[in-house]
Amino acid sequence: MKAFFKQVLAVIVGSLIVSVFTSVMFLVMFFSMLASADQRPNITQGTVLHLNLNGMVEERHTASPFDAFFNSEALNNQGLNDILKAIKVAAKDDRIEGIYVEAGLLSADFATVEEIRKALTDFKKTGKFVMAYGENYTQGAYYVASVADSIYINPGGMIDWRGIAATPMFYKELLDKIGVKMQVFRVGTYKSAVEPYTGTEMSEANREQMQSFINDIWTVVCKDVSASRNIPVDSLNAIADSYATFADVEDYVKKGLVDGTAYVDEVRDRLQNRVSESLNLVEAADLALCYEDDNDEDGEIAIYYAYGDIVGAEGDGLMGGGALIVGPDVVKDLDQLAQDDNVKAVVLRINSGGGSAFASEQIWRAVEQLKKKKPVIVSMGGYAASGGYYMACGADFIMAEPTTLTGSIGIFGMVPDLSGLMTEKLGLHVDVVKTNEASDFGVIDRPFTAAESQAMQQYVERGYQLFLKRVADGRHLSTAYTDSIAQGRVWTGRQALNLKLVDKLGTLDDAIKVAAKKAQITHYRLVDYPAPANWLDQMMGDYKDDYMEREVKTTLGQYYQPLRFVLNLKGTDCLQARMPFEPQLH
Fold first, then answer.
1. pTM value?
2. What whole-number distance in Å separates Cα of residue 566 and Cα of residue 574?
3. Residues acting as catalytic residues
4. Bridge-partner residues for 298, per DSSP?
């Protein structure tokens, strides 16, 4: 018995020692990551910025000390703001002798890659080199890399050069099988976000607008690549038609897409030969920490990032996290910027396909109040459509990229009828007693009556008329003309410029210059808003929610947006100012 207790005691003591050791090691690792989170990189002569075009590029990405504990795509996420800052630092610092673009499986909208490409074009004016290499180039990655002085590909690599396809998916027959019917109320010939739930193919109007904007985006891409690589546009289209993804790499060389083949070690040797000292590669997120404005004696220009779906309340994401434009939060933030005397102008950076019409209206009002105090300039990212355009239309000046998708001025409402699912599939029955005719309006266990449908349609039409008025007043256009270019139609930035929906084509930097000019300031500091969550908030759960959202999005792929959209149809959000689901631009 005595030996037994000794053995039990030994097990307990051993367990305690292991637990204490594990806790200590965790704390050491944790605080080490915190200490190094904002540590600036070592920059020496021979430094080269390593621009790794692999994974998802978001408007902003906040690094977390918890990233290492999750086997997550978050490790491959990058912020466009960090990339642009890093390129500016590389241009100014004489110790940084060039940029190495490593292409990979890049996931980003065309306006985002266009912005990166323009930043690299400006960087080349310094006389420093840009070298690109990739084992496999996605179309977006090749578009960026094509600006480089020299482009190399692995001998076993591929270039996915094949043009653009928009491939919306339709769910009507699936919904029919489970007894769900979508009741749709909309205004706008081209307002096609509801089509996946009501049909099995694109309407002619939707097909027309999609063909128009993908053609325009492809024209921009081919024109830019043609200028950089000295390949005629007709030849680029012929290559795209020839299933170039599966071509022999030597064909890429012969046709001028790349300058040669090389393995990664050979590329490193070539980089070493281009610099004056020992090669020192620095990542974009690290180099961005070195970015500093020259001075700020005139005050701040605030860059307010608004990206993701527009929702009426926190927690409307699929898992409660993810990138969202939360109406009440944005209104509060813009009000604070209006009251901050040190902020001389605001650049509203929008990347959103829309969402809640009610929330969009509240943000529109906040922009109106803000511009009474200081200039408000909009910079459009990949999307600033429907609710995203609603937010933008009242600004003092609107800047878009040529490949931005914008417009989609229209409103729709969609309410599911679950009576078939509940009664025929599940055997559930609902009865009702009520005091008034409309007491049970909005229930989903039966279809709308004719009177209910009429009331809902009138509600949607009033929403559309209000949207038209906001755009017409903000852009100084007649309501009739605005209606003619509205109707829910999506336009590219280039098309929108001709239609007077935007004022100029340009980058975020160009929008900042306009803001400074309108504020009549020369020396200013750029400040990003809203402030990213601190590590304590992340530890308390915010990061976990965001991580789960990204994991679900990665797993579901193209099914993610429509599923989240249906789950969010509630309350005031049943009225939507949303473009057709972001097309799969392959």
1. 0.86
2. 10
3. 191, 386
4. none
